[in-house]
Design goal:
Number of helices: 6
Order of helices and strands: EHEHEEEHHHH
CATH topology of the largest domain: Archaeosine Trna-guanine Transglycosylase, Chain: A, domain 4
CATH class of the largest domain: Mainly Beta
Length: 179
């Protein structure tokens, strides 16, 4: 995901991240819907790892980040940093169907995605390789433009099967299919 870093607090956060492991946390927050960000315990986010960084003359920067893993906020931290800091724990999947069923489900979802691609007037310049032998739901979700609330719900699902079903609804809607 490309990001344009222009707020001073986030410029400081990126400088701190680059001075350590190159990672920081991202959480979706809608100020209008949720009010001020208050380190709500249990909120789910994603660890972002800086893959590319370009400094601009005025202090801004352009970065490209890759999602590494999900986390859950366990508590807020009081610090002198101008950005929010929190204690977090990993937020992993809790289990899924057996592997053979999961591979078949991944294959069906990938095929549905490819059917959507076939309807486009132009093929995207780049797409990740989707292998049904590996987790594909997060890579597929990155290829679609859906509202942020949908992406947050998707991020919070703890089973790949549930994420694949959600993707199939979006792909089916794009093809005019209803379930």
């Amino acid at each position: 995901m490309p990001l344009h870093i222009f707020e001073p607090r986030y410029q400081a956060m990126i400088a701190d991240a680059r001075a350590t492991d190159g990672q920081f946390g991202m959480i979706y927050h809608d100020w209008d819907e949720q009010g001020p960000f208050l380190f709500d315990e249990g909120r789910i986010g994603c660890v972002a790892e800086i893959e590319k960084h370009e400094s601009l003359d005025d202090g801004r920067s352009l970065i490209v980040v890759r999602g590494v893993e999900r986390f859950r906020i366990t508590d807020g931290l009081e610090s002198d940093a101008p950005y929010y800091e929190a204690l977090v724990t990993p937020y992993d999947d809790v289990g899924d169907a057996d592997e053979l069923d999961l591979v078949a489900h991944r294959l069906r979802t990938i095929e549905l995605f490819e059917s959507v691609l076939a309807t486009l007037p132009e093929t995207p310049l780049w797409l990740p390789d989707f292998s049904p032998e590996e987790e594909v739901s997060f890579a597929l979700a990155q290829t679609i433009q859906v509202d942020r609330e949908w992406h947050q719900q998707f991020l919070e699902l703890q089973a790949e099967t549930a994420r694949l079903v959600l993707l199939e609804h979006v792909f089916g809607a794009a093809l005019g299919k209803t379930n």
